[in-house]
Automatic annotation (TrEMBL):
Protein name, entry field: Aminotransferase TAT2 isoform X2
Family: Belongs to the class-I pyridoxal-phosphate-dependent aminotransferase family.
Organism: Canna indica (Indian-shot)
CDD domains listed in its UniProt record: AAT_like
Pfam families: Aminotran_1_2
Length: 404
């Protein structure tokens, strides 16, 4: 038997594994509606005004100027465009030299955790959370410590728990804002409290702002970099969500470090970027036109459709007695819903709920236990309102049938 990396050989439950199992259980008489793993980009209702993005790429390809290798950290003009985008409204701007272009937000997560990993270290992650952080931490040999997001406080970070979990080996805390899976959008007061906690603990904040600006209902997105004078911020972003281009695999890692505490991290990031491979040259070439130009019609339409779907889902879910959404999402594309299993026949937990729902109604939802919250489910609402109505009808019919 050939040997392999033991960190990759453990038989762990992964999202893909669970989703794969659930997808094998659909009702053959009904078309599948996936509210489990989200890809809004597959719906035409989000495409209005999107042709500009394609043109930027077509021009890059047609010019033949980007058949070459890109520099290890990305083309300077593309890094500058990202730096300018991230610096808007932030007093400690992000400079071109502190932006590293990555293959989607996922590679930014991997680079960040690989760079921060030191022997015996631990990392604070939110629960419920986003599983790629756990996967990247495990691969890098980082111990994971979960802090809770509190449903009764609009999913704010439990900061006293963060303080008690951290020790001298803690290398950082991950904050996802706007939040996947809860849909929370943190106030500037709460973001400042987070930064103050990180300052007291002497750790950087890893700010996953992949859903940055995807906020509605009058909410405002405040970048964590606004508080970088308190604690250094490592920003993770991508074109995948706000611009609906997940297949382009374009993301970034950016350092906002006005106090200069990330000097070693920066050197290590550059060493790692020098020996890995980043996003395709042609995709990088399209970045300035995509993120610098306003594309107002596109962004407005995305927010309008998302908010329509959210309002629809929220009112329908709260009409179902066995389901409850405690805190209406104000951003991202996800909602956490609590399932009252004691009122449901033949359903003991969130996994049973997801299995029975897909078996009977061909609706996929994400069981909360795989992201850290038992007897909750995560529902994706980045789909067309018409399809969401159909999905809600089926969820309602299922719950009614199963209610004791
Ligand atoms: C989608 C997502 C990412 C980045 O994903 P890519 O598809 O690799 O760009 C990062 N963080 C969160 C919370 C996400 O939902």
């Amino acid at each position: 038997m050939a040997k392999c990396n033991p960190r990759l050989s453990a038989n762990k439950t992964s999202i893909r594994g669970v989703v794969g199992e659930l997808l094998g259980m659909t009702n053959p008489d009904m078309p599948l509606i996936s509210l489990g793993v989200g890809d809004a980009a597959s719906f035409s209702c989000f495409r209005k005004g999107k042709a500009d993005f394609n043109e930027a790429l077509i021009d890059a390809v047609s010019s033949s100027m980007f058949d070459c290798y890109p520099p290890s950290y990305g083309f300077p003009f593309a890094r500058r465009a990202v730096a300018e985008y991230l610096s808007k409204g932030v007093s400690h701007g992000i400079s071109e030299g502190d932006v590293y272009l990555t293959v989607g937000g996922t590679q930014a997560i991997q680079v960040c955790l690989t760079v921060l990993a030191s022997p015996g270290c631990n990392l604070l992650l939110p629960r419920p959370g986003f599983p790629p952080y756990e996967a990247a931490a495990e691969l890098a040999g980082i111990e994971i410590r979960f802090y809770d997001l509190v449903p009764s406080r609009d999913w704010e970070v439990n900061l006293s728990q963060v303080q008690s979990l951290a020790d001298e080996n803690t290398i950082g805390m991950v904050v996802i804002n706007p939040n996947n899976p809860c849909g929370a959008v943190y106030s500037s007061t709460h973001l400042q409290e987070i930064a103050e906690t990180a300052r007291d603990l002497n750790i950087p904040v890893i700010a996953d702002e992949v859903y940055g600006h995807l906020v509605f209902g009058g909410s405002r997105f405040v970048p964590l970099a606004s508080y970088a004078h308190l604690a250094p911020v490592i920003i993770i972003g991508a074109l995948s969500k706000r611009w609906m281009l997940p297949g382009w695999r374009m993301g970034w890692l950016a350092l906002c470090d006005p106090c200069g505490t990330l000097k070693q991290v920066k050197i290590a990031t550059e060493m790692l970027m020098n020996v890995t491979s980043g996003p395709a040259s042609t995709i990088q070439a399209a970045v300035p036109r995509i993120i610098s130009d306003t594309h107002e019609e596109f962004h407005r339409n995305v927010l309008t459709v998302l908010e329509t779907s959210l309002n629809l889902l929220y009112s329908r879910i709260n009409q179902i007695e066995v389901l409850q959404c405690h805190s209406k999402p104000r951003g991202s594309m996800f909602m956490m819903v609590e399932v009252n299993t004691t009122l449901l026949y033949g359903i003991e937990n969130d996994m049973d709920f997801a299995k029975e729902l897909i078996r009977e109604e061909s609706i996929l939802v994400m069981p909360g236990s795989i992201i850290g919250l038992k007897n909750w489910v995560r529902i994706f609402f980045g789909i067309s309102p018409e399809l969401l109505i159909e999905a809600c009808d089926r969820i309602q019919a299922f719950c009614k049938r199963r209610q004791i």
